[in-house]
Amino acid sequence: MSWSDFKLNSDGLIPVVVQDYKTDQVLMMAYMNEEAFNTTLKSGKMTYWSRSRSELWTKGLTSGHLQYVKSLTLDCDNDTILAKVDQIGAACHTGNRSCFFKPLIKKEYNDTNPLHVFQDVYDVIADRKEHPKEGSYTNYLFDKGIDKILKKVGEECTEIVIAAKNPDKEEIKYEISDFLYHAMVLMVEKGVTWEDITRELARR
Q1: For residues 25 and 81, what is the distance between their CA atoms, to the nearest angstrom?
Q2: Which of 87, 88, 112, 78 shows the shortest CA–CA distance to 25?
Q3: Are 87 and 60 in contact (CB under 8 A)?
Q4: How do residues 121-130 score in pLDDT, each as one tens digit?
Q5: pTM of the shown model
Q6: How open is the CA angle 87-21-190, to the nearest 5 degrees?
Q7: Separation between Cα atoms, residue 144 and residue 114, nearest integer Å
Q8: For residues 68 and 195, which has the higher predicted lDDT (pLDDT)?
Q9: At 81, which helix (H) or strand (E)?
Q10: Spatial separation of the C-alpha atoms in residues 22 and 115, rounded to whole Å
């Protein structure tokens, strides 16, 4: 689609919602004019129109916190662009990863998004390795070394097989969770990240 197909606001601009392409976290919102849009397409770096300075603005050009374009998608009304980007550093001038960090209202809920849960658990395990905590089972495994970790991974695999013969799925959920935890301990021990795993899976 060309610029002429976009529905612009009264200033001749189109709003752009910017999202992390890996996590789907909303990072910021800005505006583009035609020059900013074309510059973004040519350079591969998110470029906006600064309404306060009345000039073209390539995000991160001075700070180094560049946004590399992964995709641009137009909404159903042709009046808003969704940009998925590879964000280098912080998106917000305050130093926060996202500009959206001021809570207004929140209802408690369990975040069961696999991407978030796996990464959060992985990060806790990695932190235990970097900052050991007395009495931590995770640190016990790291202290015992690779052979102990591999033994536990093998044991959990066997327990999954046994649980799978049981018609009650509760047991297999428990055993798979145990296996995934111990697999993540192994991943941290060997320096393998979830990004490494998902990149390999996506390649297949």
Answers
A1: 16
A2: 87
A3: no
A4: 999 999 999 9
A5: 0.68
A6: 85
A7: 29
A8: 68
A9: strand 81-87
A10: 9
The predicted model gives 42-61 an average pLDDT of 96
Residue 165 in 3-state DSSP?
coil
Tokens of 124: 């806790």
Sort residue 83 into left (φ over 0), alpha (ψ -120 to 50) or beta.
beta
Number of C-beta neighbours around residue 97 at 10 A: 15
State how far the Cα of 89 lies from the Cα of 85, in Å rounded to an integer: 12
- Say which residue the tokens 């806790």 belong to: 124
Residue 129: phi and psi, rounded to 5, are: -65, -40
Phi (first) and psi of residue 150, to 5 degrees: -65, -35
Q: Tokens representing 120?
A: 């959060």
Pick from 46, 39, 44: nearest CA to 65: 46
Pick the closest to residue 177 from 117, 109, 108 (CA basis): 117
Give CA–CA dist 48/136, Å, rounded. 48
Token representation of residue 121: 């658990």
Q: What is the per-residue pLDDT across 141-199, written as a single tens digit (0 to 9) for each? A: 999 999 999 999 999 999 999 999 988 899 999 999 999 999 999 999 999 999 999 98
